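Weekly structure sync - notes
Attendees: PM, LS, DV (DV joined late)
Agenda: review two folding runs queued last week.

Item 1: First target. Sequence and structure tokens pasted below for the record.
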Amino acid sequence: MNIRSLIPFGFGPMPARGADPFGDLRREMDRLFDEFTRGWTPPAMPGTGFLTPKVDLAETEAGLEMTAELPGIDREDIELDITDGVLTLKAKREAKIEEKDEAKKYHLVERSSGTWLRRFPLPFTPAEEKVEATFDKGVLKVVVPRTPEAEMPSKKIEVKAA
């Protein structure tokens, strides 16, 4: 039997001996899915609304201002630190839902937990002893001031024609 008659029209010559057409197909499908889902965030855990909090960063003349929305998180479950010029924000959440009905004879307990970690490299030397953080109604605000050395003004250099 002629094997070429089984190849669909327009597919060209058969692959070289030792080639892996299924591996090539898998790599191409992985690439397509990666491109298709790029930029999507996974849905939040059911009933918690928490997985990837929104964070706003603003660099000002005084330093860096960060605002993070952490709904349903307790102040005690938030960790902030600055190490080697990197601001690290870590938050964890644990939720437990318990339902019980003696008449229907069922007992349901659902638990979910998650930890979120984000690191922000600081574009200046921070004054670590003056960093302030406040947490109110699920919104964390952090102010990281610059050191006096980092506040040095820049000098514009004129570029002359040769």
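Item 2: Second target, run right after the first with the same settings.
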Amino acid sequence: MFDEQLSALGQWVQVAPADGIEAYGIVSYVEMVPLDEGRKAVALEKTQDELRREMPQVMELLRTVVRVQVVAHREFGMAIRQMLPPYPPRIHTPVFAVPPQPICEIASPYDFLRVLLINAEASAFTDDLLVVVLSGLKRAHPAGDSRAVVEAGKMLSRLLRDDVERLQSILRRVALEIKALRQYSAVG
């Protein structure tokens, strides 16, 4: 159900409504692995086009593992709530990228950050996930509006008050990402 665009770390996704419930989540883990767990994937140093042309079977031997942390849901068109839905989405339900405007609605008051900190699949990537998600909030809000990032940073500072070095590292990296986004926007 996922395509490459939807499997980007930190991407907000939505499960198509089923039984009156919409679930919203954040891609929290992505990995390319061999289908046969006993084999090891080896880099062939070829482009995707070369592989498809010369060795199409290679692409069939790999799979992308994508995990999504559900952070919110909406029941029967009511307000979005930052909590798990009453039951998980069905396995073959279509998944879509969430457009910017609903991200603004879903994200505030940023309680989902606690869920990401506690439930991240691969703890080594939790900080990277937080950086991507926080800098993504800047992209989702109207140009020049940094209030969402500031509010999310305040929530994160409360959650990580006992680990100041980690907090500073995350916020410093978010600031660098936002600066890079501004430079990219000015050029493009």
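Discussion on item 2: The first helix runs from residue 48 to 54.
Action: LS to circulate a short write-up before next sync.
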